[in-house]
Amino acid sequence: MKTINVSASTEYDVVIGSGILESLGSRCADLLGKSRAAVITDSNVAPLWLDKAVSSLKNAGIDVITYVFPAGEESKCKETLFEILEFMAENKLTRSDFAVALGGGVTGDMTGLAASLYLRGIPFVQVPTTLLAAVDSSVGGKTAVNLTAGKNLMGAFYQPSLVVCDTDTLGTLSPEIFADGMAEVIKYGVVFDRELFDTVKSGKVESNIENVIARCVELKRDVVAKDEFDKGDRQLLNFGHTMAHSIEKLSNFEISHGSAVAIGMVIAAKAGAKLGWSKEDCTAEIIEANQNNNLPVECDFSPDALADVALSDKKRTGGTINFVAPEKIGKCYLKKVPVDVLYEIARCK
Ligand code: GLY
Question: What φ, ψ does residue 332 adopt, rounded to 5°?
Answer without folding.
Answer: -120, 165
